[in-house]
Amino acid sequence: MSNTQTKKLTTPDKTIVYYLDGKMHNLEGPAYIPEGDMKRREYYINGLKLTEAEWKSAKRDGDGLPWYKSSVGKARF
Fold first, then answer.
1. Which residues are within 8 A (CB) of 33 and not within 5 positions of it... i.e. 6 or more apart?
2. CA-CA distance, 48 to 39, in Å (whole number)?
């Protein structure tokens, strides 16, 4: 069973990394912020690097979302 909570790691040089199951992942914003510099931020979903536009599209469309955050997870059987 995998942990379904994204975790945040902050290194001594202030780099911020969000990860899930050992892969960079963040649906709320950039998953990698080197030295806390938002200008160099990078977006990842399930370990796949995306541009900011691709990330926004995936978030809006629900692609890349875990089943429990999509409409399938909210359907009652």
1. 15, 16, 17, 40, 41, 42
2. 19
| Residue 1 domain flag | no
Beta-carbon count within 10 A of 71 CB: 9
Number of domains in the chain: 1
Per-residue pLDDT, 74: 53
Please name which of 22, 24, 19, 23 lies closest in space to residue 6, comparing C-alpha atoms. Answer: 19
Q: Is residue 61 part of a domain?
A: yes
Q: Taking the CA atoms of the chain, what radius of gyration do you get in angstroms? A: 13
Q: Give this prediction's pTM.
A: 0.73
Using CA atoms in the order 69, 39, 20, 49, what is the torsion angle rounded to 10 degrees? 80
- Is residue 30 one of the residues assigned to a domain? yes
